[in-house]
Amino acid sequence: MPDPVLLVLDTAPSPRLGRLTGRVDVRHADASSLAGLLPAADVLLVWDAASDAVRAAWPGPGRRPGWVHTAGVRVDRVLCPELAASDTVLTNARGVFERPVAEYVAGLVLAFAKDLPGAPELRGRARHREVQQVAGARAVVVGAGPVGREITRLLHGLGVRVALVGRTARRTIHGAADLDRLAARADWVIAAVPLTDATRGMFDRRFFGLLQPSARFISVGPVACVVRSGLQDALERRWFAGAALDVSEGEPPGPDGPSRDVPGLLLSPYPSGATVGWRDRLGEQFVALYEQWARGEPLPNVVDKERGYVPSADLPGGAGPDPGTGPRVNGSAAPPG
Amino acid sequence: MPDPVLLVLDTAPSPRLGRLTGRVDVRHADASSLAGLLPAADVLLVWDAASDAVRAAWPGPGRRPGWVHTAGVRVDRVLCPELAASDTVLTNARGVFERPVAEYVAGLVLAFAKDLPGAPELRGRARHREVQQVAGARAVVVGAGPVGREITRLLHGLGVRVALVGRTARRTIHGAADLDRLAARADWVIAAVPLTDATRGMFDRRFFGLLQPSARFISVGPVACVVRSGLQDALERRWFAGAALDVSEGEPPGPDGPSRDVPGLLLSPYPSGATVGWRDRLGEQFVALYEQWARGEPLPNVVDKERGYVPSADLPGGAGPDPGTGPRVNGSAAPPG
Questions:
Q1: What sections of the protein cross the membrane (chains A, B) (predicted)?
Q2: Which residues of A touch B98 (CB under 8 A)?
Q3: Other C-beta atoms within 10 Å of B332: how many?
C-alpha cells in the first residue's frame, strides 16, 4: 500500500515535518500548482496560513483530501462553500497562539495606561502628567473562544474587571445582546472574534460611537471585523482615546491594510502570535495530529464548517481563570454572531 | 490647649488636608523658610517628597517635631544623621505606590518582549521578526520590600518564573549572596531597592557584565543605585539587550539625570507611581495617619532609621503572591544591603 500523500502548501518548508519521513509521501505546492496536485492528496497542510489559494483551487466533486489542516487560527481564508459542503475534515492550530496573543493584549493595555509609546518622545514634554492604574479598570472581551478566554485570564490577573461576551449568554459569559451596554462603560474593549459573515465589519462607526472618551479599543482578530473608515473617523474625532490593531500575516500595512497615519492608532510591529519558536510549535502540533489521523483516531481542533470556527464546548478548564479567583468561563463558548 | 502645629513642606497644597481644619494649626514652609518654622512644629509633613530641604534645615538638639511623614517611598532625601539619631518618628507612604510601580514593570516587560517601542517605527521594517513570549521566562527581582513583592506577584501572574532577592535568605526569599548567580541566568532583572549606603551604585559595570546578552534590566528605585556610566557602557557594548529607568521626581533628564541617548535605554515618561489620583491617595493616607497620631496610637509605616527603610517583618500577607499559586514571600523581608 503506498504511503499517504501529504500535500503541503508552503512558502518555506516546516522543519518538523521531517519526522514523518519514510511514512508519508510529502509533496509541495504553491498557489499556481495547488489545483493540479490537490486531487491526488490524502491530506492538505496549509502551512502558509495567510494564503487564500485553497479557496480558488478546491476541487469539485470527486477525489479530494479527506483532511485539511491550516497552520493558523483563522479559517476564513480556507473555508470556501465547496469545502464547507464536503465531508473533508478541517482543523486549525488552536492552542499555539492563545498565550502570545493574550500577552500582547496585556502589554498593550499596560503600555497605553503607562504611556509607554510616549516614552521616546519625553524630551521637552511636561513630565507630571499622571498615568493610569490598570487594576480596577473595566474591560469587555468580545469573543469567548480560546483567545478571548486567555485574554480574560491574563487581564483578570492584573486586577482588571473583565466581562467576556460570547454569541449567546451562558453561565458567566454575556451574550451578544449585552455588548453595547458593556462597551459603553468599558475602559478597554478587546475584539477577539473570528471572521464570519456575522462578525465582518461588526466594529463600525455605530459601535465606536458607544465608547467612552477615555476608552481604548484593541483588535487581535482579522482586520476585516473592523470598519477602517469608521475607526479612523472615530479616532480623528476623539470619540475614544486610542486603538491598536494586530497586524497579522496577509494584512500588509499598504493600501489594503489599516492606515498607519491615524492619531491614536498603534499597529503591532509583528503578528502578535508569532513568538520565538512558533513555527516549531506549529510543526510539532501538525505531526501530533498526523499521528492521530494515521491511527484513525478522531482529531481535535475540528472546525464547525457552518459556523466558521472551532466550537469551544469542550475547551479544557485550564483556558479559564483560576477557579475562585475570577469570572468562570466554563461551558460551551462561541464568539458573537 | 492650642491645636498641634502641622508644618507642611510643599509646592502645592494637598486637597485632602482640609479634613483636619479646626483641629490642627496648619502652616506651610518652603525650602528657605523651613529651618525657621521647624522648631515650633509638632508634626512635619514632607509633601514635596522630592525635596531634600529637610536634611539642611533639621534643627539641632532642642525643640523639634516628634513625627515626620514623607509623602513618598524614598526616605534617603529626608534622613540626615541628626534625624536618625533623634527620637523623632519617621514614616513614609508605603501602600500607595506599590501597585502602580508593579504595573509599570509588568508593562515594560511585555512591551520589551512584544517590541511595542518599535511599533511606531514599523514603516519599512521587516515584519517577520519574532517577538518573545513572557510566560516561562526567568526574572530576578532585587529588593524584597513591598514594591519588590508586588512586582513578583504581578510577574508571577503572567507566568514568569520569579526569584525574589532580599538582604538575607529566608523561606522563599533568596539572600544577596545568590544575586550574581540568579542574575546571570535571568531574562529580566528588576531593581527595586531603596537607596542606602549599601545599595548606592550596586548596579555597576561588574554587575551588568554578569547578564545574558538577551537580558533586560529595569530599575524602579532611585537612579543613584545604578552607575550611569556602567549602564551606558554595557548597553553600548551590547552586553545585554535593553534597560529602563523609572524617572522619579527630582531626577530630571538633564545633566544630573540618566542620559536619554543611550541605545536600548527606555525612560519612563512620568514617575511610574504617579497614577491618576495619587495626590488624593497620599493626602488620605496622611489624614488617616494623623488621626492615629492624635489618638496616641502607634503609627504604621515607621522607618527603621538605621537601615533606611520600613522593615517588612509585619507586611500584610496580601503583599505576597496568592497562596498556592506562586512563590511564598511571607516572613521578614528587607532589601539587599
A1: none
A2: none
A3: 16
Mean pLDDT of A239-257: 67
Chain B residues with beta carbon closer than 8 angstroms to that of A119: 117, 266-269
Task: Report the candidate in B239, B235, B256, B238 with the shortest Cα–Cα distance to residue B247.
Answer: B256
Task: Please give the single-letter amino acid code of residue B70.
Answer: T
Instruction: Give this complex's ipTM.
Output: 0.81
- What is the structure's pLDDT at B331? 33
Query: CB pairs below 8 Å between A and B: how many?
Result: 167
B275/A103 touch (CB, cutoff 8 Å), yes or no: no
Contact assessment for residue A168 and residue A176, using Cβ atoms and an 8 Å cutoff: yes
Tell me what pLDDT residue B277 has.
Answer: 86
Phi first, then psi, for residue A281 (nearest 5°) are -65, -40
CATH of A98-274, one of 3.20.20.70, 3.40.50.720, 3.40.50.2000, 3.40.309.10: 3.40.50.720
- The answer to whether B131 contacts A274, with C-beta atoms less than 8 Å apart, is yes
List b or e across B173-201, with b for residues whose CB sees 16 or more CB atoms inside 10 angstroms: bbebeebeebbeebbbbbbbbbbbebbee
Contact yes or no for A48/A30 (Cβ under 8 A)? no
Find the helix or strand (DSSP H, E) in which A244 lies.
Answer: strand A242-245
Say yes or no: domain A5-95+276-310 is CATH 3.40.50.720: yes
pLDDT tens-digit map of A302-334? 999 998 888 876 444 333 333 333 333 333 333
Cβ–Cβ below 8 Å for A130 and B99: no
Helices (H) and strands (E) in chain B, counts: 9, 11
- What pLDDT is stored for residue B25 in this prediction? 95
Distance from chain centroid for Cα B7: 25
Select from A114, A269, A277 the Cβ nearest to the Cβ of B103: A114
What is the Cα–Cα distance from B24 to A66, expressed in whole angstroms? 83
Q: How far apart are the first and last CA of chain B?
A: 45
Query: In terms of CA atoms, which chain A residue is nearest residue B251?
Result: A127
For the cut 90, the answer to whether the pLDDT of residue A138 exceeds it is: yes
pLDDT in tens, A181-232: 999 999 999 999 999 999 999 999 999 999 999 999 999 988 889 998 999 9
Domain range B5-95+276-311, its CATH number among 3.10.180.10, 3.40.50.720, 3.40.50.11030, 3.30.390.50: 3.40.50.720
Over range A85-90, report the average pLDDT.
95
Q: Which residues of A touch B129 (CB under 8 A)?
A: 269-270
pLDDT confidence band for B223 (50 / 70 / 90): confident
Cβ–Cβ gap A275/B132 under 8 Å = yes
Indicate the residue of A118, A268, A276 with minimum beta-carbon distance to B133. Answer: A276
| A103 contacts in chain B (CB < 8 Å) | 110, 113-114, 133-135, 158
Using an 8 Å CB-CB cutoff, list chain B residues near A253.
122-123
C-alpha distance from B288 to closest chain A C-alpha (Å): 22
CA atoms within 13 A on the CB side of B113: 33
Residues of chain B with CATH 3.40.50.720: 5-95+276-311, 98-274
Q: How high is the pLDDT of residue B248? A: 62
- Choice among A87-91, A94-98, A328-332, B150-154 with the minimum mean pLDDT: A328-332
Please, which pLDDT band fits residue A82 given cuts at 50, 70 and 90?
very high
Chain A residues whose CB is inside 8 A of the B264 CB are: none
